[in-house]
Design a protein that fits this description.
The complex is a heterodimer of chains A (about 400) and B (about 350).
Chain A (H helix, E strand, L loop, with lengths): L1 H32 L5 H5 L1 H8 L9 H16 L4 H10 L3 H11 L7 H8 L6 H9 L7 H5 L3 E3 L5 E3 L7 H31 L3 H12 L6 H11 L5 H8 L13 H25 L4 H8 L4 H29 L3 H6 L7 H10 L4 H31 L5
Helix pairs in contact in A: 1-19, 3-4, 4-6, 5-6, 10-14, 10-16, 12-14, 14-16, 15-16, 16-19, 18-19
Chain B lengths: L3 E11 L5 E11 L3 E5 L6 H9 L6 E6 L2 E2 L11 E3 L11 H11 L4 H14 L15 H13 L5 E5 L7 H18 L2 E6 L2 H7 L2 E6 L2 E6 L1 H6 L4 H6 L4 E9 L2 E4 L4 E3 L10 E6 L5 E2 L9 E10 L3 E8 L2 E9 L12 E5 L5 E5 L1
Parallel strand pairs in B: 3-8, 3-9, 6-7, 7-8
Antiparallel strand pairs in B: 1-2, 1-4, 4-5, 9-10, 11-12, 11-14, 12-13, 14-20, 15-19, 16-17, 16-19, 17-18
The chains are: A mainly alpha (about 400), B alpha+beta (about 350).
Keywords (chain B): ATP-binding, Nucleotide-binding, Transport
Protein name (chain B): ABC transporter ATP-binding protein
Organism (chain B): Falsiroseomonas selenitidurans
């Protein structure tokens, strides 16, 4: 008994390590980046150490000013000041300039630095700047997680919502949630009759129908989204056809609208709703409907009281699948959507590729993960009772 | 009230327009009877039941219930209870909710539903199990619930489609007794489909033996077993020895190998070819010299079956003539190789035209 257990463990081990190495570790590291704060310690170790001993009253000692000038200058020489400048400027706009001014002038600055630095840039004479630098000493920060919820921390350390005109991410998450829920609802509504129809087909035709459902998978999401880009153009076939039919007088702007995003997402994700529904419906015994009829239930009653509840696990599985994929969708909205239609994934990509702000990218990812996790949990709770019914029991 | 509850008039069913699964079926089902449709698979018995339930449409003919045509009425308006082989209990509903289903569809008041569900559960001897899910019950319990669900809305007719097929022998016998008891208690008309001849004999008031889409014989269990209408019925219900023969005169046949067989008047013309059917249990063993159709037969093989022995014997030029020896008293079992004196009473010989 013990030996077979060991053998089983040994057989599973490689797979477990693969999952651990290729999935859990990268995700864990990414999530850690959402709270990691290493730039100041890495680039300004001495300044950071001095600031750690500062009581936060008035201004820090002269040694801190001197260390900052020396270390900033050295970092500029070694071309590794960029991360730090980015980090400081993200928390407070303008600090990039302040830091770079000191770094460039490092050699020429005369003691006492506590006077020459503020002379170069007034911000070095403000207590808030030094408090910020002190708090950025790490090793962790709530900066990114707060900012991703449109909040910030004052130099005094209180958490406070950003002014309305600077808010961005709450709307973004609500928009992502809204688009995903709409896409999920549309996919479920469209997929349900299709899945039911396929489940009702006889053997050769059911295979044909399933293949038709799967054909979109033969091309990538990029290709399919690009196709919508072509179709929805002002001079594209959709506008052309609607005009030819007399339903439109002039071409309508469709690209760059929420409509286009939802359309493309529904198209891309529909198979993911059909397949789980179909597999559940195929397992349903047709005699359930016969039994319901023999007990007096008419068509609508048979559907509402027997077929719908029995196929509900498939609906929930398909809906959850579509929602999870839709929440993280990047390509389709990026191609056919406008600036106001972009979802969280687009911002994550931007923070990684354009701004090289891994902290924000990671913080947004963390919230996205939490959102999908919450949805999975919700579906589990909802299906709890249904799953217990054990459809094939 | 007439004695006839259901009437099939010239009902045919064909799926492809050529072969008829059910062919020109005429059948009257009497009020309150237990009628079994018995036959091999593909004989049309299940199709007949499904046409009655409304899940299949007849290609031709008409079906009436209480004198009113029902073959054009959709199944949910026929008010006929159906018990399915695989139970077809709704897995998302509890046992009580399954039983309440037909009542709530009929808008029976809630309090009455509760009362009738409890009564139905105690009728099938499952009181207190209403809160369970069907899949928490054993196969036998599930079929009891299915039976109760088909009866709870007081339909005049209940159809049972091989309801015990999935159960083991002991449970099957237990449920047969239960079904018989419920049938007697409620006086409801039941139509039962099975391919198990012993089940049909156990349960039925009348048996309709199906083959190739037609009723081969309709009668009581005794009539179907003892006076089969044709070789198919004789062969399908119970065992029989079949021997080709030629008619000598009104009460005598000559078997293929040459020996003579005395029978009751059989009504066939002299010289006609005939087929003789003899049930193994009607063969007398260790018979007196003067017994009818007495002859010597060698025991080829003995199978001991507890309550009886099955003997394969050499007789009338063949070595596959079977006889049953009941074990009324303990004693010697005949040995293979010994010769016994057998006899066949005239009344035990059934003669069919070949």
């Amino acid at each position: 008994m013990r030996r077979t257990n060991l053998l089983a463990a040994a057989l599973i081990a490689p797979l477990l390590l693969l999952i651990l190495g290729s999935f859990l570790v990268p995700v864990g590291l990414t999530l850690f980046r959402a709270v990691a704060d290493r730039e100041v310690v890495a680039t300004l170790p001495e300044t950071s150490a001095i600031l750690a001993g500062w009581d936060g009253e008035g201004l820090p000692p002269e040694a801190a000013f001197a260390a900052l000038a020396r270390e900033a200058g050295a970092a500029l020489q070694a071309r590794r000041i960029g991360d730090l400048a980015q980090r400081l400027n993200f928390e407070r706009t303008g600090l990039r300039t302040a830091l770079l001014r000191v770094a460039r002038a490092a050699d020429r600055l005369a003691a006492p630095h506590a006077q020459s630095l503020p002379a170069l840039d007034a911000r070095w004479g403000e207590r808030e700047t030094w408090l910020l630098l002190q708090r950025a000493g790490g090793p962790t920060t709530a900066l990114y997680l707060l900012r991703a919820m449109d909040a910030t921390r004052t130099p005094q350390g209180e958490v406070r919502a950003l002014p309305v005109e600077e808010r961005l991410y709450r709307t973004l998450f609500l928009r992502t949630l809204g688009i995903s829920l709409l896409v999920t609802a549309l996919c479920v509504l469209l997929a349900y009759p299709v899945a039911a129809a396929i489940a009702g087909l006889r053997p050769p035709w059911s295979a044909v129908a399933l293949t038709l459902v799967l054909i979109p998978f033969w091309s990538s999401v990029l290709v399919r989204s690009t196709a919508w880009f072509v179709l929805l153009q002002r001079e594209g076939p959709v506008n052309g056809a609607l005009q030819a039919l007399g339903m439109l007088e002039a071409p309508v702007q469709m690209l760059g609208t929420r409509f286009a995003v939802v359309l493309a997402l529904v198209h891309v994700l529909l198979p993911f709703a059909i397949l789980p529904m179909h597999s559940v419906m195929k397992g349903l015994d047709g005699t359930f409907l016969r039994a319901a009829a023999s007990l007096g239930a008419n068509g609508p009653q048979r559907f509402l009281r027997v077929w719908l509840p029995l196929s509900l696990p498939g609906v929930l599985a398909g809906g959850a699948m579509v929602f999870l994929l839709s929440v993280g969708m990047y390509t389709a909205p990026a191609l056919v959507g406008g600036d106001r239609d972009q979802m969280v994934a687009w911002f994550i990509a931007n923070f990684m590729n354009r701004d090289v702000n891994w902290g924000m990218a990671a913080a947004l990812s963390a919230y996205l993960l939490a959102m999908t996790g919450a949805m999975v949990g919700l579906v589990r709770v909802l299906t709890g009772g249904v799953a217990q019914a054990g459809l094939r029991g | 009230m007439t004695a006839t509850l259901v009437r099939f008039d010239g009902v045919s069913k064909s799926y492809d327009g050529r072969t008829r699964v059910v062919a020109e079926l005429d059948l009257e089902i009497r009020r309150g009877e237990f009628l079994t449709l018995l036959g091999p698979s593909g004989s049309g018995k299940t199709t007949t039941l499904m046409m009655l339930a409304g899940f299949e449409d007849p290609t031709a003919g008409s079906i009436t219930l209480e004198g009113a045509r029902i073959d054009t009425v959709p199944p949910h308006r026929r008010n006929i209870g159906v018990v399915f082989q695989n139970y077809a209990l709704f897995p998302h509903l509890s046992v009580a909710e399954n039983l309440a289903f037909p009542l709530s569809i009929r808008r029976v008041p809630r309090a009455e539903i509760g009362r009738r569900v409890a009564a139905a559960l105690s009728m099938v001897r499952l009181p207190g199990l209403g809160g369970r899910r069907p899949q928490q019950l054993s196969g036998g319990q599930q079929q009891r619930v299915a039976l109760a669900r088909a009866l709870i809305f007081n339909p005049p007719l209940v159809l049972l489609d091989e309801p015990l097929g999935a159960l083991d022998k002991q449970l099957r016998e237990e449920l047969q007794a239960e079904i018989r008891r419920i049938h007697a208690e409620l006086g409801v008309t039941m139509v039962y489909v099975t391919h198990d001849q012993s089940e049909a004999l156990t349960l039925s008031d009348r048996i309709a033996v199906f083959d190739q889409g037609r009723i081969q014989q309709l009668g009581t269990a005794q009539a179907v077993y003892e006076t089969p209408a044709n070789p198919f019925v004789a062969g399908f219900i119970g065992e029989n020895n079949r021997l080709p023969a030629t008619v000598l005169d009104a009460t005598r046949l000559r078997l293929a190998e040459g020996s003579m067989l005395a029978t009751l008047p059989h009504g066939l013309q002299a010289g006609a070819a005939a087929l003789v059917s003899i049930r193994p249990e009607r063969v007398l063993l260790e018979a007196a010299e003067a017994a009818p159709n007495a002859a010597a037969a060698r025991v080829e093989e003995v199978v001991y079956l507890g309550d009886h022995c099955r003997l394969r014997m050499a007789w009338a030029g063949r070595t596959d003539f079977f006889a049953k020896l009941p074990r009324q008293q303990a004693g010697q079992v005949p040995q293979a190789g010994t010769t016994l004196r057998i006899a066949i009473p005239e009344a035990a010989i059934i003669v069919f035209p070949a």
